[in-house]
Design goal:
about 15% helix; alpha+beta; OB fold (Dihydrolipoamide Acetyltransferase, E2P); 2 domains; 5 helices; five-stranded mixed beta sheet
């Protein structure tokens, strides 16, 4: 899917490169990773659950705050002409069971509001002593009620969330029992049916390239038709923990919106959506 590269990685480097990945990148074990610091946000009582990853809370002064759980994505409920995704009702009910009528504490990363004015936060319930208690994102992931999905300016313990997601998926909990959410293989023909949808794709990186600063991770012999991960030049600096070019031969799992550019492609703008598995 990419033109003739300026720089490629030789397969002979694979063993040396992969040996260092466990402590450098997004892994289920979380070893070698530090959890980004969060800033303390508002505390309020949950008065309405909208869906599996958003709700409304009321502050002590009566102010209402709309909140979106950061670093996760719930199945969408019906919106206008769009039908609800499978398991949307169960996801909403699960979040309501955890937080409806409870006091919760918000914590923020680099951004506090999205373009809709919602608070983008890590959320904990508040114990009777006033201290943060249950981490809601982790519990929703553990129960299979949401999928892990980060945005570039959000902060979370991604290694912990991915580990919990793997456990839920292995045990077919919640939405993972539904084939709609099955992990896709990087086979371009079946993936063509998933264009314009949000998917998780797992496979081996067969070649990498740097083309005028844009990075490509390819998953087949024919770049004109095979699945590819692309990283725009402006986003490469976000991958400071490891050179994506060095992922040649690695088994990875990527998540995002599937587009058709020659073959199926996912644009990656930060490393939080990429798991290096081996």
């Amino acid at each position: 899917m990419f033109p003739k590269p300026k720089k490629t990685v030789n397969l002979d480097r694979r063993i040396t490169v992969l040996a260092g990945l466990a402590s450098l990148f997004i892994m289920g074990s979380g070893k070698g990773l530090s959890v980004p610091a969060l800033s303390k946000g508002e505390t309020g009582r949950v008065t309405r659950v909208i869906d599996g990853d958003s709700f409304v809370m009321t502050l002590a002064d009566g102010t209402k705050v709309s909140v979106r759980l950061s670093a996760v994505q719930a199945p969408r409920t019906a919106q206008r002409s769009e039908k609800a995704w499978p398991f949307a009702r169960e996801s909403k009910a699960g979040l309501a069971a955890l937080i409806q009528g409870r006091d919760v504490q918000l914590s923020y990363g680099d951004e506090t509001r999205d373009r809709f004015g919602r608070a983008i936060a890590q959320v904990h319930t508040v114990s009777t002593s006033g201290a943060p208690d249950l981490w809601i994102q982790s519990e929703m992931v553990r129960l299979g009620l949401v999928r892990v999905f980060s945005w570039k300016n959000e902060r979370a313990d991604m290694a912990a969330l991915y580990g919990l997601e793997t456990e839920a998926r292995d045990r077919s909990r919640g939405l993972w029992a539904n084939p709609t959410y099955a992990i896709r293989k990087p086979d371009p023909d079946p993936l063509a049916q998933d264009v314009d949808s949000w998917q998780i794709i797992e496979g081996f990186v067969t070649s990498t390239a740097d083309v005028r600063g844009r990075i490509y991770l390819n998953f087949g012999a024919d770049y004109k038709t095979d699945f590819t991960i692309a990283i725009a030049k402006k986003n490469v600096k976000r991958f400071a923990m490891i050179d994506p070019i060095s992922l040649l031969g690695a088994r990875v799992r990527v998540r995002g919106w599937v587009e058709m550019i020659n073959g199926p492609m996912i644009w990656l703008d930060h490393p939080g959506r990429l798991e290096v598995l081996s």
